[in-house]
Design a protein that fits this description.
GO molecular function, one term: DNA binding
Largest sheet: 2 strands, antiparallel
Keywords: DNA-binding, Transcription, Transcription regulation
Protein name: DNA-binding GntR family transcriptional regulator
Number of strands: 2
Structural class: mainly alpha
Oligomer: single chain
Radius of gyration: 19 Å
Strand order of the largest sheet: 1-2
Length: 218
């Protein structure tokens, strides 16, 4: 089932399907050359993950992004993640920083800079950072909100480019104890709308490492 799920998910984010197109079990079985069972399971999981909706007697359609829902998710994440960083930054140990940097390097080292790899590592980064605070309930809520955000993230990342590595820079500021700037960078990363002030600080105080591609935000 995972292979079929990943294949359909990949085709969704690479615009292989139109929003108005019906996804049927039969068509997907033929497209991916698999039996009905894994297709049905994949569709059920995609529906559970809020990527598609069921249209009775027709099949499934990709969920149309609702901009209000996106704003709600982004605002929720910004408040949640930034407030926890401000209050519990002292719980982030050097070992945590090292693990977080490794997640960033994994993406920087990958030869295939595709969306799926980016999203998984981006999710891992935020989950790892938030796990430092020791609040499992809040972490679970954060991950649920991020999973709902994927369909919107696809649209954002189509033309998204940022000439700064926000995650690496954020970790540097956490190590320096400059939590205010770290929070600014964290909010910019969540909102995908970097502020001029945040970018200026990065350019002045965090020169881009030549070994890390400038489009790597993981």
């Amino acid at each position: 089932m995972n292979q079929v799920y990943n294949a359909i998910f990949s085709d969704i984010i690479h615009n292989e399907f139109d929003f108005d197109e019906y996804l049927t079990e039969k068509a997907l079985m033929e497209k991916y050359n698999v039996s009905r069972a894994p297709v049905r399971e994949a569709l059920m999981q995609l529906r559970s993950d809020h990527f598609i909706v069921c249209i009775p007697r027709h099949g499934y359609r990709i969920r149309r992004p609702d901009q209000q829902e996106l704003r709600d998710i982004v605002n929720f994440r910004a408040v949640l993640e930034c407030s926890f960083l401000e209050q519990y930054y002292y719980s982030i140990t050097p070992e945590h920083i090292q693990s977080l940097r490794e997640i960033c390097r994994q993406y920087a080292d990958k030869q295939d800079k595709n969306f799926i790899n980016y999203w998984k590592l981006n999710r891992d980064f935020h989950a790892k950072l938030f796990s430092c605070y020791g609040n499992d309930f809040a972490l679970h809520t954060l991950l649920e909100s991020m999973d709902r955000q994927v369909i919107y993230f696809v649209e954002i990342m189509k033309n998204y480019y940022l000439a700064a590595d926000l995650h690496f820079a954020m970790l540097d500021y956490i190590e320096k104890g400059d939590i205010k700037t770290a929070m600014t960078l964290l909010r910019a990363d969540i909102e995908k709308i970097p502020t001029n002030d945040a970018l200026q600080r990065v350019k002045q105080n965090h020169p881009i490492n030549a070994e890390v591609p400038t489009y790597s935000l993981c």
